[in-house]
Design brief:
Elements lengths: L2 H10 L4 H12 L4 E2 H8 L3 H13 L3 E6 L13 E6 L13 H15 L2 H13 L9 H7 L4 E4 L2 E4 L5 H6 L1 H15 L4 E5 L8 E5 L4
Antiparallel strand pairs: 1-3, 2-3, 4-5, 6-7
Helix pairs in contact: 2-3, 2-4, 3-4, 6-9
Length: 212
């Protein structure tokens, strides 16, 4: 079986609507999710949720850990709960096959070697501001539509997912700077984007300016 065939099989699992809703809920959650919470979130029984969640684990779409939710230890503390989180791997299919990642890496390498960080950031900021829904009041919706998976951490709006994860890993200064500039262009004036990495997520976080 080729890598492409394996990816088709993995993504084919998400054709089931319950499984798809469970994956989306767990993937978007800022913390690990237990079976009961996942079942309640999508409106199915705990046993059905457990079945689908474990299928997603087998496919490599979710990862598992075990922890006592009560926080207690020792006799009488109960069994550790099985918790789920989004797996680190990426799955993408292009028909026919394309090599956009290879082109992206080549372009990033050229820009970095040429020292064109500021020019890239200026272009990203302009591109963000030119989007049809840029500066919309609902910044969460704007970011969610672009795959950032925003969530609130106190008064800070953090981003669970980095849409440029692979390139950001290889060229962190270049791509993270571009990403910050892009979000500056997208965000309304009352928001202040800044570099504040979320563990396992995006390098940018947003907070409202004090005047607002």
């Amino acid at each position: 079986m080729t890598d492409e065939d394996s990816t088709f099989d993995v993504l084919g699992l998400l054709s089931d609507p319950v499984r798809r809703r469970l994956y989306r809920h767990v993937a978007a959650a800022p913390e690990e999710v237990g079976r009961e919470a996942a079942a309640e979130a999508v409106g199915v029984s705990r046993s059905l949720a457990a079945f689908h969640l474990d299928k997603l684990v087998e496919a490599g779409l979710l990862a598992v850990s075990f922890r006592r939710l009560s926080g207690r230890a020792g006799p009488g503390a109960g069994r550790p709960a099985k918790l789920y989180r989004r797996a680190e791997g990426e799955h993408a299919v292009s028909l026919p096959p394309r090599s956009y990642d290879a082109a992206g890496r080549l372009l990033a390498e050229v820009l970095e070697n040429a020292g064109l960080d500021r020019e890239l950031q200026a272009a990203a900021r302009t591109a963000g501001a030119a989007q049809p829904d840029a500066r919309a009041d609902d910044v969460e919706a704007v970011l969610r539509d672009r795959g950032y998976e925003p969530f609130w951490d106190g008064e800070t709006l953090r981003l669970r997912n980095c849409p440029f994860h692979t390139l950001a890993t290889e060229f962190p200064a270049l791509i993270c700077g571009m990403n910050l500039a892009l979000i500056e262009g997208l965000a309304p004036e009352q928001w202040s984007p800044e570099m504040d990495p979320c563990p396992g997520g995006c390098c940018v976080a947003l907070s409202k300016k004090k005047s607002h």
